[in-house]
Design brief:
InterPro entries: DUF1075. The chain is mainly alpha-helical. It is built from five helices and no strands.
Length: 153
């Protein structure tokens, strides 16, 4: 429909050249970009050592991730990339463990639900029994309150 409308528009009948979408023909302005300055790397401070002194937890992470076999093999300073890679590996392993635990818990809940259904237990029946107990307790409280009110002093 738009194609037909653009071909049979009023302006095209009289030879005027408009854009097909009916927008104005303002020429595009070319904006000059400022020249880019050459990238100068920032100088590193002389007092920092290239690396990271791993803490006890970082040492455990490095061992758990498989980077080193024992704590004795870990050097005094380790690169940031090594620590980061080890942390990421442990993070992924922890995510896998949590997924497995979640799936296992879901399966346990399904099995427990099926067993409860086999014993004809349901949440509806449980709630109805609980509410019946509450009603009985309220009636007992009302009877005891009425008995205390009837007692002559």
């Amino acid at each position: 429909m738009n194609l037909l409308r653009s071909r049979l528009s009023f302006g095209s009948l009289f030879g005027q050249r408009w854009s097909h979408r009916g927008m104005c023909n303002k020429p595009e302005e070319v904006k000059s970009q400022p020249p880019l300055a050459p990238a100068v790397p920032e100088p590193r401070p002389a007092f920092k050592l290239p690396g990271y002194r791993p803490s006890e937890m970082d040492k455990r992470i490095l061992i758990w991730s498989g980077r080193f076999k024992t704590a004795d093999q870990i050097p005094a300073t380790v690169s940031f990339e090594t620590i980061d890679a080890a942390r990421n590996k442990i993070r992924v392993k922890a995510a896998y463990v949590m997924m497995g635990v979640t799936i296992g818990a879901c399966l346990v809940m399904v099995v427990m639900g099926k067993r409860a259904a086999g014993r004809n237990e349901s949440l509806t029946a449980h709630n109805m029994e609980k509410k019946a107990r509450w009603r009985e307790e309220i009636q007992m409280e009302k009877k005891s309150a009425a008995a205390l009110a009837e007692k002559p002093e």
